[in-house]
Design goal:
This protein has about 180 residues and is mainly β. It has a single domain, classed as CheA-289, Domain 4 (OB fold (Dihydrolipoamide Acetyltransferase, E2P), Beta Barrel). Helices cover about 10% and strands about 45% of the residues. It is built from three helices and 15 strands. The strands form four sheets. The chain has a six-stranded mixed beta sheet. A hairpin with a 3-residue loop joins strand 1 and strand 2.
Length: about 180
């Protein structure tokens, strides 16, 4: 009898034999017509849409701020950030609250997405480096592209999605509103 674990497909992309070090744990979501993903460890929580308070003179991509259990958090509209046309609300929209940056410099912000799809684990082997142009968004934001059986998954780099200056401006918006 063999002590080797049989290879089986899990979520169409991950094999049981793959070690945890070779897996990426992600939260995937849709903005426009594309599916994106970010590391699950960066996600603090996912909330249904709630009232967003607009703050005068905030950066164009900042939709406003929310009060999340006593904390004022800036909210970025990823449709605006990616220069994707707005659409009518469907009820599936969510605010993903993330922490960007390392210890001591970590900043918390939320961003709106059209729909949260799933939590998934994929092998690093199926991720290709970011192409020069990726679905109309600046490829600097893209860490790579995962090749799933059902299509492509664009992996975003939260650190590159917002420059240090933009992060500072977004967080200043929250400070002004507090």
């Amino acid at each position: 009898m063999s002590s080797e674990t049989p290879t089986t497909q899990n979520d169409d992309t991950v094999q049981e034999q793959t070690s945890d070090a070779e897996l990426l744990q992600l939260v995937s979501f849709v903005v426009g017509t594309e599916e994106y993903a970010i590391p699950i460890l960066a996600v603090q929580e996912i909330n249904r849409m709630m009232p967003i308070t607009r703050v005068p003179q905030s950066p164009e991509f900042v939709e406003g701020v929310i009060n999340l259990r006593g904390r004022v958090i800036p909210v970025v509209d990823l449709r605006r950030r990616f220069d994707i046309e707005t659409h009518a609300e469907t009820g599936d929209e969510r605010i993903i609250v993330v922490e960007i940056g390392g210890a001591g410099e970590a900043r918390v912000l939320g961003f709106t997405v059209d729909r949260v799809n799933r939590v998934l684990r994929i092998s690093r082997d199926i991720v290709e480096p970011a192409p020069t142009i990726t679905s109309g968004i600046d490829s600097d934001f893209v860490e790579g592209v995962g090749k799933l059986e059902e299509g492509l998954l664009i992996l975003l780099s939260l650190e590159k999605l917002f420059s240090e200056e933009e992060l500072g401006r977004a967080c200043t918006t929250a400070t002004k509103a507090a």
